[in-house]
Amino acid sequence: MAVPEFRAIGLTGMPMVQSGDDLAAQIIDAATRQGTPLAAGDIVVITQRIVSKAEGRVVPLDTFVPSPFALAYATRWEKDPRVVEAVLRESKRIIRQVGPVLITETHHGFKCANSGVDASNVGGEGLVCLLPVDPDASCRRVRDAIRARSGIEVAVVMSDTFGRPWRLGQTNIAIGVAGMLAMRDYVGKADLDGHVLRVTMICDADEVAGAAEMVMGKLDAVPAAIVRGFPYQPGEGSAQEIVREQALDLFP
Amino acid sequence: MAVPEFRAIGLTGMPMVQSGDDLAAQIIDAATRQGTPLAAGDIVVITQRIVSKAEGRVVPLDTFVPSPFALAYATRWEKDPRVVEAVLRESKRIIRQVGPVLITETHHGFKCANSGVDASNVGGEGLVCLLPVDPDASCRRVRDAIRARSGIEVAVVMSDTFGRPWRLGQTNIAIGVAGMLAMRDYVGKADLDGHVLRVTMICDADEVAGAAEMVMGKLDAVPAAIVRGFPYQPGEGSAQEIVREQALDLFP
Q1: Yes or no, beta carbons of B161 and A199 under 8 Å apart
Q2: What ipTM did this prediction achieve?
Q3: B85: domain CATH number?
Q4: Domain count for chain A
């Protein structure tokens, strides 16, 4: 049996991304400059933040005129009412609102704190970073642009840092996918004893995002990584494969 | 800036683990035979299943005489009443019981389906696999035995495959830790713009377990892996760092 192995490689030397930037070109250049040029079959993992920046989703806080509800909530918990307003507009629904904690479902169906709205690390005061409008489409664009520029076929995963209801600490998970299936399906497969497996689907995209985080960190300017050697399943793929429909959700 | 990189390497050629086996010796041998001998600073990731097997936690189902509650529930949902009884005895409490789905909190505080009780892939009929009694202690024993046999200082993570309340598919997470901190703490740290970070703690142990799963899979006999090159924080560490106290839990 061949030894299964993959490498996760952080991309150093990426520029501070600005609105309108060509992420594909920046990724190709950064990978080449550090001596690990992109190769066919790589998964390119990009953080939500650089995609949001490139796509103009870092917007002035003053865009958000607080509703009376946002204002009252912000006052009570000493939040910026414009940030609260931004969170509400980015939300399909509020899942839990306990003290200052706001757990929401985004319009994409992701369940997380504050709908991913972030006033940290956005490149200036008075700005707020929103999630990309369609993270799968963003990933497809980067994948297509890498192919167009270099002829190299990669998969792309967009990662973000989410908390978990039942476990402390956060991990990176996938909010966008292109060129690979998000899930590895074991339905009906038999284990070593011939039993049909209890485990039915492994979320490859989330494990890939978490592995990439290990070479990104939070303080250093490493907003992209390559996962090389992992035998993902090529295909259309979508982070929507991972979103639980509310009807299936035991914890609405 | 040095290029951040780690490798995840599956250990092929591990034997089918039996009760009483010396996992440390098997891991050292398998790593050496396949040409990737253990090295200082490696994280050795071991699946819950081989630890449970080595520690005699694969037990006859007939050990579990069903209570009237277990019997009624099993009959209604066409389950094996002995398995239901095993799940209940492994549980501190039932979190959700919806149709045939039983989400529980284990005596360790892990929140998962069926308290991790598994009748699949346990090496025979009429057997059931229970989680180790003290997974942190199991990890410490393997770490100490690797040091004693080889002089090599590694960290050890025990992984298991858990579902997530809000995301479809399963991922591997950590249920035991030794020799490294489970969490990477960013409390009070500033981001690139000088803002104090929104993200405060990354769960390294869970990301490591997920990365290792990518070289393990479910059907092949790869029950252990090496994560090499990841700059974890050495220390006592414990999977208890990851367990949410019920009082902190927004989703009891």
Answers
A1: yes
A2: 0.95
A3: 3.90.1660.10
A4: 2
